[in-house]
Amino acid sequence: MPARFPGFLVHCLTASGAGVGIAALLAAADGRFAEAFAWLGVALVIDAVDGPLARRLEIARTVPHIDGVALDLVVDFLTYVVVPLVALWRSGLLLPPFSVFLPCLVGAASALYFADRRMKTADYWFRGFPAVWNVPVFYLLVLRPDPLVCALVVILATCLMFTPLVFVHPLRVQRLRPVTLAATAVWSAAAIAAVYQGLSQVDVMTKGVLVAIGGYFLLLPLFRRSP
């Protein structure tokens, strides 16, 4: 048991993301979007930390009775899909009947994506849009485009989940990793500033940083070298 205890604590850390996700879900359903995305930020930190810890402690070997992959997928589906879709539904960014139909469609499509064993390439890129709906919904809440544009963005991202296009995993892809980590840090600071400003009244500079770094991540696959 002493040898297994550190690994069990890592599983507990991963599971705590579900509790954080529920807090975000309640805030999103109540229309408190800045609070919801603050909780999602906490969940994102947990998700970034637990993987390296799990690999370092070899918890698949030391705590084999708990499936860490399944646990991680359950928590990720809540925080990356369910909570952002509830925020999208509640936000008024989509006009009826799209405000209900599109989140339901995206939820079903994302479930298929999460179950796809080809989700990641051998060099840790995501194959297709990785169903991290907290990112596009966050941008839509900050930029507040026309409802038709919002609907088109959601539909396009849904279609991209099932394409051979790749998207970067900021922490695991080796190609241009120092630049990507630096961009991720700057993006995180801008995202925190946007949440602090309530998402709906974000200053121009913060919006510019978010858009510029978002463009970097979208263009990064052009510099990928196939394994």
Q: Could you please describe the fold and organization of this structure?
A:
The protein has 227 residues and is mainly α. The chain contains nine helices and two strands; from the N terminus they run αααααβααβαα. It has a two-stranded antiparallel ribbon. α5 runs parallel beside α7 (147-160). The chain starts with a helix and ends in an 8-residue tail after the last helix. The model has no long low-confidence stretch (mean pLDDT 92).
Notable features of this structure?
globular; mainly alpha; 227 residues
Give the helices and strands, then pairings.
Elements: H1 5-29, H2 33-57, H3 59-62, H4 68-91, H5 98-115, E1 126-127, H6 134-143, H7 147-160, E2 166-167, H8 177-196, H9 204-219
Antiparallel strand pairs: 1-2
Task: List the total number of helices.
Answer: 9
User: What oligomeric assembly is this protein in?
Assistant: single chain
In terms of structural class, how would the helical and strand content be classed?
A: mainly alpha
Give the beta-strand count: 2
Distance between the termini: 40 Å
Shape summary: globular
Q: Let me know the largest β-sheet.
A: 2 strands, antiparallel
Order of helices and strands: HHHHHEHHEHH
Q: What is the share of helical residues?
A: 55-70%
Proportion in β-strands: under 5%
Given as residue ranges, the uncertain stretches (5+ residues, pLDDT < 50) are: none
Average pLDDT, to the nearest integer? 92
What Rg, in angstroms, do the CA atoms define? 18 Å
Number of domains: 1
Strand arrangement in the largest pleated sheet: 1-2
